[in-house]
Amino acid sequence: MNSSAIIVGGGITGLSAAWELARAGQDFVLLESAPRVGSVIQTVRRDGFVAERGPDSFLGNKPPMAALCEELGLADEVVASLPAPRPQLAGRLPALPAALPEDETLAAYLLRCFGEARGAELASTVVGPMLAGVYGGRIEEWSAQSWLAARATAGSAPARFNSLRCGMQQLIEALVDQLPGDRLRTGAALDAAEIARVIQSGERRVILALPAWRAAELLAFDADLAGPLSAIPYVSSRNVNLAYRRSPPLPPGHGMLAGPEQAPLLAATYAHQKFPGRAPAGGALVRLFYPDGAEPDWLALGLPDPDWMVSTHCDRAMPQYTTGHPARLAAIGAGLARYPNLRLCGNAYGGVGMPDCIASGRAAAGA
Ligand SMILES: Cc1cc2nc3c(=O)[nH]c(=O)nc-3n(C[C@H](O)[C@H](O)[C@H](O)COP(=O)(O)OP(=O)(O)OC[C@H]3O[C@@H](n4cnc5c(N)ncnc54)[C@H](O)[C@@H]3O)c2cc1C
């Protein structure tokens, strides 16, 4: 086998795989179809505002991000979220029974565990808004097994959100600076037939750091592998950053998860109240999240027109771990056994957040 690995996809997962290989002194080439790497991780820095188009924070109790920041010399650039009152949720989530021999929807699980009245209340006031606000997901579809697994790996320590001083793009910039530049090929016209040939011949390692639906396209020659990959649904979404030089009146705290009365809004973040340095003194940076197709309407929320705004459409960027997700992962694992030189990594499998993606990319490169 040729020792040079091919990484397809230059989001945080593919870049993490590249970082792992570079640190091990192994040769690789990373092919990214877009003109820049980083994908959804993009920060707009303008007039003293630091506005995120994609992720704005990461859970401080997940080690992969801390380790990567340390290795990149970014440890001093990590900023902790500002103090805030606890989110106003109408209910609290009691301890959940973790064992679940068969998958079911999260909604069914809550009803079964807590009874109809309490289960429905938790679904509509706590778990439903959280799932919609964070993943654009619906509890009537989400896999209870996957949700419980994510809760288990999150650890028992209280979650604290961190970010980077100049925004999450700082992580991408550090990776680009420190990875060998001639190994990162952006705007790369991918020859899908050639990738398929390399995978089937086993002559080189291929690491697909792509959304599952994209990986399925490249693996179309193997229906048993492409089938469960293409069955992982993704949703699109829109978010708008509203920049105010003079802050309008806002509630305290980092933001809110929307209830049915605020539909179609999913969530709002008051970025300048969440992290230091997101807006100039006296200003505000408000970010609103919507499902695909919804028209952002800040006036309906009582917000004035901003001084400027950034609107971002995230096209099929968020995987949905719907019921049957663990079974689909098992089928993908069985299919992968036929190709010892092929690895799949990214947000479709064992976690959507950036720390999970980093762990997934590094594991794919190290294995
Ligand atoms: C709006 C939004 C907010 C989020 N907020 C948070 C947050 O606050 N905290 C958190 O931890 N996580 C958050 N996430 C999740 C996290 O950002 C993503 O799961 C993660 O960035 C995905 O990285 P990835 O590399 O796996 O995939 P992607 O970012 O999808 O990267 C895949 C890359 O592959 C490229 N590509 C596609 N097809 C090809 C091809 N044929 N050939 C070559 N390249 C190809 C794409 O152009 C892309 O660059 C958020 C996600 C979104 C969309």
What does this structure look like?
The structure is a single chain. This protein is of the alpha/beta class and 367 residues long. It has 3 domains: 2-41 and 58-78 and 162-233 and 321-366, FAD/NAD(P)-binding domain (3-Layer(bba) Sandwich), CATH 3.50.50; 88-159, protoporphyrinogen ix oxidase, domain 3; 235-318, Protoporphyrinogen oxidase, mitochondrial, domain 2 (Polyamine Oxidase, Chain A, domain 2). Helix content is 34%, strand content 21%. It has 12 helices and 15 strands. The chain has helices at 12-23, 63-71, 106-114, 116-135, 144-153, 169-178, 192-201, 212-218, 223-230, 271-274, 325-336, 354-366; strands at 2-8, 28-31, 43-46, 49-52, 58-59, 78-80, 161-164, 184-185, 204-208, 234-244, 255-257, 267-270, 284-291, 308-319, 342-344. The strands form 4 sheets. The chain has a 5-stranded parallel β-sheet with strand order 8-2-1-9-15, with helices on both faces. It has a 5-stranded antiparallel β-sheet with strand order 11-12-13-10-14. β3 (43-46) and β4 form a beta hairpin. α2 (63-71) crosses α12 (354-366) and α8 (212-218) runs antiparallel to α9 (223-230). 42% of the residues are buried. The model has no long low-confidence stretch (mean pLDDT 94). The structure holds flavin-adenine dinucleotide. Residues 8-14, 31-34, 39-41, 54-58, 190, 209-211, 214, 237, 239, 314, 317-318, 346-347, 352-354, 357 line the site of flavin-adenine dinucleotide. Flavin-adenine dinucleotide binds next to α1, β10, β14 and α12.
